Every structure is written in C-alpha cells, then in structure tokens.
C-alpha cells in the first residue's frame, strides 16, 4: 500500500490532518466531515484494510488502536457521558476508506445505533 491509500498518505505526512494523538504504532486525527461534536479517527500506522484483517493479522496492534481510542476519549472529556467506537467494515458496513479506522464519536447524545431497525 502507501501512495494509493489516503490514510497511509496521512501517516506519511503527505496529506495534512489535525492530529490529536500519535504513538509509535497509531495515529488519531479529526474526521474531515465530523458527524458529532467529537469525531476522531484512530488508525494503526501500518496498513490493514479492515478491522477483521487487523485483528486476525496483528491482535497486539488492534489492542494499540483500542488503547489510543481510550486515551483520546479521555483527552476529549468523553469518559463521563460516554461515546461510541465504531469500525465500518466492507460493503454492508458502509466502509469508504480501506485502511482500518475506529470512529470515536461523542460530545452529544448519539441517538440509536442504526438509523432504522433492519431486523
Ligand atoms: P468510513 O466510511 O470508511 O468508515 O469512514 C471514512 C471517514 O473518513 C469518513 O468519516 C470521512 O469523513 C473521513 N475522511 C475522508 N477523507 C478524509 C481526509 O482526507 N481527512 C480526514 N481527516 N478524514 C477523511
Ligand atoms: Zn493505508
């Protein structure tokens, strides 16, 4: 991957982003089109297409993504009222960028988990 992947290019510093936290293995930056008062994307620096590939390929790195998400949630003052952590995956999941990213959403009541009940 690399030049073809938007988020690899953000990791490489080729595309600007508002970074809120960086670790050796992860990067957290604000979503360009926020859907809530706090909307941060948390990614592993290494390219994995989606959360299943990441969890199966490098569980420790998946844990790093969760740990960074929790640290950002704390920094953003979300631990008291709560937040949502979401990995859109594949076509049914509505994934648009195929470099795994956790959406950290909060700062207001987020409503139902899905816009409508599909069951
Ligand atoms: P997905 O639909 O793949 O779960 O989410 C992709 C997210 O990436 C969307 O929320 C979208 O707003 C965000 N996004 C797309 N392009 C950029 C960009 O260039 N910079 C940042 N910071 N976010 C982006
Ligand atoms: Zn990538």
Structure description:
The structure is a single chain. With 119 residues, the chain is of the alpha+beta class. It has helices spanning 6-11, 51-57, 59-75, 90-93, and strands at 19-22, 26-30, 38-44, 83-86, 102-106. A five-stranded antiparallel β-sheet has the order 1-2-3-5-4, with helices on one face. It is globular. It binds guanosine-5'-monophosphate and zinc ion.
User: How many H/I helical runs?
Assistant: 4
Query: Biggest β-sheet, characterized?
Result: 5 strands, antiparallel
Helix residue percentage: 25-40%
Proportion in β-strands = 15-25%
Distance between the termini: 37 Å
The computed structural class is: alpha+beta
Bound molecules: guanosine-5'-monophosphate, zinc ion
The SSE order reads HEEEHHEHE
The Cα radius of gyration reads: 14 Å
How are the SSEs ordered, and which strands pair?
Elements: H1 6-11, E1 19-22, E2 26-30, E3 38-44, H2 51-57, H3 59-75, E4 83-86, H4 90-93, E5 102-106
Helix pairs in contact: 2-3
Bound molecules: guanosine-5'-monophosphate and zinc ion.
């Amino acid at each position: 991957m690399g030049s073809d992947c938007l988020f690899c290019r953000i990791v490489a510093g080729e595309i600007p982003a508002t970074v809120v936290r960086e670790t050796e293995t992860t990067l957290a930056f604000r979503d360009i089109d926020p859907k809530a008062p706090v909307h941060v994307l948390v990614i592993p620096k290494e390219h994995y297409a989606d959360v299943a590939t990441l969890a199966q390929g490098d569980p420790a790195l998946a844990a790093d993504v969760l740990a960074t998400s929790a640290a950002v949630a704390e920094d953003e003052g979300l631990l008291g009222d709560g937040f949502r952590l979401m990995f859109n995956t594949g076509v049914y999941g509505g994934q648009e960028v195929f470099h795994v990213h956790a959406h950290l959403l909060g700062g207001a009541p987020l409503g139902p988990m899905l816009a409508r009940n599909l069951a």
